[in-house]
Amino acid sequence: MNFASDNVTGVSPEIMAALSAANAGTAMPYGQDEYTQRLQPQFSDLFETEVTVFPVATGSAANALTLSVMAPPFGAIYCHARAHINTDECGAPEFYTGGAKLVTLPGSEGKIQTPDLADVLTRAGAGVVHYVQPAAVSLTQATEAGTVYTPDQIRALAEVAKRHSLYVHIDGARFANAVASLGCSPADLTWRAGVDVLCLGATKNGAMAAEAVVFFNQTLAQTFGYRRKRSGHLFSKMRFLSAQLLAYINNDLWLRNADHANRMAQKLAQGVVGLPGVKLCYPVEANEIFIELPDAVSSSLLADGFSFYPRKGANSTTIRLVAAFNTSEADVTAFIEAARRYTCEGFPSVESKA
Amino acid sequence: MNFASDNVTGVSPEIMAALSAANAGTAMPYGQDEYTQRLQPQFSDLFETEVTVFPVATGSAANALTLSVMAPPFGAIYCHARAHINTDECGAPEFYTGGAKLVTLPGSEGKIQTPDLADVLTRAGAGVVHYVQPAAVSLTQATEAGTVYTPDQIRALAEVAKRHSLYVHIDGARFANAVASLGCSPADLTWRAGVDVLCLGATKNGAMAAEAVVFFNQTLAQTFGYRRKRSGHLFSKMRFLSAQLLAYINNDLWLRNADHANRMAQKLAQGVVGLPGVKLCYPVEANEIFIELPDAVSSSLLADGFSFYPRKGANSTTIRLVAAFNTSEADVTAFIEAARRYTCEGFPSVESKA
Amino acid sequence: MNFASDNVTGVSPEIMAALSAANAGTAMPYGQDEYTQRLQPQFSDLFETEVTVFPVATGSAANALTLSVMAPPFGAIYCHARAHINTDECGAPEFYTGGAKLVTLPGSEGKIQTPDLADVLTRAGAGVVHYVQPAAVSLTQATEAGTVYTPDQIRALAEVAKRHSLYVHIDGARFANAVASLGCSPADLTWRAGVDVLCLGATKNGAMAAEAVVFFNQTLAQTFGYRRKRSGHLFSKMRFLSAQLLAYINNDLWLRNADHANRMAQKLAQGVVGLPGVKLCYPVEANEIFIELPDAVSSSLLADGFSFYPRKGANSTTIRLVAAFNTSEADVTAFIEAARRYTCEGFPSVESKA
Amino acid sequence: MNFASDNVTGVSPEIMAALSAANAGTAMPYGQDEYTQRLQPQFSDLFETEVTVFPVATGSAANALTLSVMAPPFGAIYCHARAHINTDECGAPEFYTGGAKLVTLPGSEGKIQTPDLADVLTRAGAGVVHYVQPAAVSLTQATEAGTVYTPDQIRALAEVAKRHSLYVHIDGARFANAVASLGCSPADLTWRAGVDVLCLGATKNGAMAAEAVVFFNQTLAQTFGYRRKRSGHLFSKMRFLSAQLLAYINNDLWLRNADHANRMAQKLAQGVVGLPGVKLCYPVEANEIFIELPDAVSSSLLADGFSFYPRKGANSTTIRLVAAFNTSEADVTAFIEAARRYTCEGFPSVESKA
Description:
The structure is a homotetramer.
Chain A: H1 13-22, H2 34-47, E1 52-56, H3 59-70, E2 75-80, H4 84-87, H5 92-97, E3 101-105, H6 114-122, E4 133-140, H7 151-163, E5 167-172, H8 175-182, E6 197-201, E7 211-215, H9 224-230, H10 239-249, H11 253-272, E8 279-280, E9 288-293, H12 295-303, E10 309-312, E11 317-322, H13 329-344, H14 350-353
Parallel strand pairs in A: 2-3, 2-4, 4-5, 5-6
Antiparallel strand pairs in A: 1-7, 6-7, 8-9, 9-11, 10-11
Helix pairs in contact in A: 1-10, 2-10, 6-7, 8-11, 11-13, 12-13
């Protein structure tokens, strides 16, 4: 009953099967194989426009490599203060860009607000040598708070960005969950809204280790291949990355997986909202839910064998629960029942446990 | 009949099975799983000493990350002029080290010679701020010429290196082939001979995408984890890297695979040596053979559907043939027969082909 | 009547004379000259301990080079949000460190507060690979608000830093003004309070272009020479940098210059405090004063030929006035009188100006 | 009697006077001063075309910054094996470019040969992700062997470079000596021959510390300002750099200084050629001469107080003598006489010295 993250899961059966199938025979290395050749047309279909696709194995690599073609070493990249690229990648964007600066913005529910972006860009000192130069905006979709940007929200942010000649990047580690949640087309959430490059996550949503860097802005793609190679992210047996990605978008697997995860998160949220002392921190719009609850409830749940990351606050604990493509309804039900038990019926005394 | 490289192959059945087995259930991410936990003791057993092991997915990543803990940005790394790190990684070592310099050495049969290393180090200007500072020596085992360093040769080079306070790195993309060829213990070829870190390749020898960075020098391992993370090479679903590596060394799979490849290379060499106009370039000590042959023979073989990389010279063509863990004897026989046919019986005229 | 910065001034006569004197004869390059050789003993005397001194020409170079020996590429450097290294060096620390991250702290009057530092370090995730690793604290002395840290304040911050194994750096572009203001010894403000390296500014205080990087922590000095060279900051005719620095500390020139500047700033502050609509933003403890005044007053003063940097706020303008080693009392008096005239007597109408 | 380098000299009187003159009054910082404003038109006049000029203080900074706008991190920069950027800058080009690779070419008399450049570029693998990508050629003028490229030689090399879309850089630490030697116009030696950027040295030829980065290719200049700032090479009191450069080209001071140095080198060469056991290594075309002589002669000259850098060979010693703008004829004569004495009359026995 592991709700710690969607990366605690294994691989979707469809993707495992694709890996086995791709293992037949020999194939030329480094992307000169038939699987990799199929990525371009199939992703172009999916996104309803001509795209260039580069497979890589991790989300950090996808993000950092993409930012390295968007920002010069003296550039500024704007992102939410809680963005994964800012807090959880040990400085990967700084490494890949040669020292560009992440400039963070606040924003409730994990989202950058258009006026905040406009304001910081107006004061950024573009053209003045003393200051890092505005280069890119990075949006996380779904956000680190489990919310999603609507197409309109992305378009508004992208318009501000474009007005200041910035590129727009999407860290889409959970992009599938956002698409499934909004029910809109991938195109509407990306290039039609002004996005230049999408890092489309697959690993958290059923792949073994695969992410697709999808360029809508072809000019930005020009040096990506060299950068991928020199960072050690060009796989010799590339067919095994590409096969994962092909299976991922085949028959809407990515959306079916995401939809299941989203529904499990909804179910979790509905099950715990209203319990005494339990507070939902953000709207549940994807596959993550954040809840504040009494410290003792958190401890008891952990003691019961539920896995999740707790963060101790002043008077309570905030926990994150993540549902995945294969989270079972039974696990969700078990969690809800345990939460109900600990919040409603109180806690066993130390003695009774002994 | 693909002899282009050992990376045109797929995955060993044993490793594919290990990936399937590892897919059961959930596992904590980023190496906090049971597979990754088993690497340390099992590789320590294999190398007969306490080692620290970091799995990564590509050889370039393994090499560049390792060099980044061995050399400061102002450091010099000594390697053979034909070393993969110098010629085929698009500057990965320079990227990861923050700009260290590869200083190349000549050497017949792909091997650095001890006197050459001693000479260049004596003249390197250690301690003088104008010069990049000697930091590490990188040896490729098996070499880019398909030869292998003996334990004595490595020890002699390492002694020179140590005398000048340099670290010793082995790019072991084909280390298994060297061990299988020499019949010595992995320990004798590494730490007992003075090696600090081995990048042990698995991908070319039957893995899907997995390499083990094996630290004999524990001090050097201290910052590796941060560097791996910030370069995007820390896998969330790490168990799938570790499972490959465990299966790789289990029941000597790595040596059995390498031994087969080596034998196929020997067979190829024996089959073509002595054919008219055919010259073996280097001793065949691992799984690669380099032969010089008439241009027309090379062209005819390619036209017949044999895959390999030719390099056109002044009056002839040099081709590289690489045997892999699953190269069939039938393919080898077919190649030898075709080579014999084209060299001994002459070539069909253009007309007869039409 | 230029109060824009202390870098609008020229060179102290004593330093100009030293440059002329140093021009006699030949001298071996790159610091093998007698001037440079005298730095070590003379600065050791000044700081009452054995120090290692490296001359460089700019403050940004001094700071960035120093941070590069304090923080690994995956490191975190803590500084005030308004620190020059964070806002005005176009990412120099990120460049020199290979991508370390500046983590900013708030703090009234330009000073980091000890509890804030302690708090952020407790939550920094030392030892966890996902996070940049705490490496150094950088304090600006005098601060960007024209205030100064007392020895006790520095010691308290350094103690927190040491508890977490961080190095302590002082950006001392205006360190002379702080020493002159506090009347304490340079030793008390640095190594006795726990400082590892001081970047001692001279350029703003009468030099042509010279800063001394003063290492109290000798271990940190080991690679500085290579880093200075490879960044192009090792001067061939080094004697001209060293001669400036020797003249700077000779006969307390640095403190006399700073003391004059401080007094002029005090006089400015006393002259404008109490004027209608004028508000002093921070205590005036060094050679900078920040005042908030009506927009029209700021505009009128600029129109009168006074130079300073204004920052437009919602209902008023904040201006910074910087006094230098050669700011004349007459200029200060003229400024005060003009400010009094515009604030007390009102403003000429647009018509009367025409 | 110091022939060790042209950087052992002090400052030309004309430049010292210019520094004093520039010290009057205040001036806005960072290049917003009248001296810096005059650089653009005056250097455009000198080079007979519109140029963009950036002053920096050292040659290493000039070169490395320039290369950083010419080559991406995955780029290859072609230069002579003995080029200063390759051997004497502790990896500065690698640092500034973020890890680009210097690919060295041989060449007698310190010059790259056109066929060699053409050959290496043909085999460089442009467009292949495994290889660093050809980006720039760097020529040293005058060369490290004291020879000069003619306009025709530069044009031929630049044509090869342009055919492969490379930029052409000149490391002109001794460019003045080349112009004075060839008697051609600066334009003929640079942009008319296909040069994109010239790093025009002044420090070795009479300045205190000043070099002009002269952009003929304006597009390349676009990001230079940010890179200069973030590397700490933007001087606050910029007028003192610019004043040196203005005085340097005023009234042909740069050429007069260089011409004197060249003549002294010629005189030295003529004086020692033909002495027994003395061999001139290269044609003397600028202000450096390289001579091979018996070890004992070298030792005796050093013992007599002549300064120069000797390099011990198998059976003799090669010494470099550098003449400067203020090398006196008397010193030259003294050297020649001493050399004649030691080569012709033999050496005092050990006893007679006692």
